[in-house]
Design a protein that fits this description.
CATH topology: Rossmann fold
Radius of gyration: 16 Å
Number of helices: 5
Number of strands: 10
CATH superfamily: NAD(P)-binding Rossmann-like Domain
Distance between the termini: 28 Å
Oligomer: single chain
C-alpha cells in the first residue's frame, strides 16, 4: 500500500508517518522543506502547488494540514478543496485529520461541541473554520474521503496506549466519562482506517479506551 502524508513534518503528521512506516507501508512524506520524518521518500512541495500527477499512484493520501493563526484559518477550507480537486474522480482515498468542535452532542445532530457554553472562546474561530471545511467536504461525491475527528482533549504529548474506541458523528466518552486521545493513539486509528478503508465518505471519531 502506497501512502502519502501531507504536512508530514507537523506533530500529527510525524506520528502518522511513523505509525505507517513501522507497519511496513510504502510511505512518502509531503513537506514544504526538509523531510524531518522517518519516511524514506519525500515530495518537497507546498500543499497548494501539488498537482494530480504528484499524487497519482497513491492508494491513500492523508491530509494532516493545520492552521491556527486567525489570518490562516480559511486555509482549512481552501487546502482541502485543492486536494479534493486534484484527487477528483480517482480511486485514491483522502483521509483528513479533523477537529472535535464539529462533533454533535445530541442524537438529533442539531448541537455541536463548539456550540456548548464550556467551549473556549479562543478556539471558536478554529472550530468554525474546520466545521465549514467539513461541510464543504460532505458535498464532494467525486472523492473517496474520510474525515476523522479526535477526542475533545487531543493531547500532542500523550502516551501511546495502543488502543482506542471508534465513534461516529457524536461526541463519545469512554467508561471514565472522558473524551481524550493522544496524537500517538490517533495515529494508530488513522493508519487502521488507511489500511481497511471501512468509512468512505463518512466522518468518524476516535477516543482513548
Amino acid at each position: 500500500m502506497k501512502i502519502a502524508v501531507i504536512c508530514a513534518n507537523g506533530k500529527a503528521g510525524r506520528l502518522i508517518t511513523k505509525e505507517a512506516v513501522d507497519r511496513g507501508l510504502d510511505v512518502t512524506a509531503v513537506v514544504r522543506n526538509e523531510n524531518k520524518t522517518v519516511a524514506p521518500k519525500a515530495i518537497v512541495k507546498d500543499l497548494y502547488d501539488l498537482t494530480a500527477a504528484d499524487l497519482q499512484g497513491f492508494d491513500v493520501v492523508i491530509d494532516a494540514f493545520g492552521a491556527w493563526a486567525e489570518d490562516t484559518l480559511p486555509q482549512h477550507g481552501t487546502s482541502l478543496k485543492h486536494l479534493c480537486d486534484i484527487l477528483s474522480g480517482t480511486d485514491t482515498r483522502l483521509l483528513v485529520v479533523g477537529g472535535a468542535g464539529s462533533l454533535y452532542t445530541d442524537a438529533e445532530h442539531t448541537t455541536r461541541v463548539a456550540d456548548g457554553p464550556a467551549f473556549p472562546d479562543a478556539f471558536k474561530p478554529l472550530a468554525a473554520a474546520m466545521g465549514q471545511a467539513l461541510q464543504e467536504l460532505r458535498a464532494r461525491d467525486d472523492v473517496r474521503w474520510t474525515y476523522i475527528s479526535p477526542a475533545a482533549d487531543f493531547q500532542a504529548d500523550g502516551e501511546r496506549t495502543g488502543s482506542y474506541i471508534l465513534g461516529g458523528e457524536e461526541l463519545t466518552l469512554n467508561e471514565r466519562g472522558e473524551s481524550v486521545i493522544s496524537y500517538a493513539d490517533y495515529a494508530i486509528a488513522m493508519v487502521d482506517e488507511a489500511v481497511k478503508g471501512d468509512h468512505i465518505r463518512q466522518r468518524i471519531s476516535v477516543i482513548a479506551a
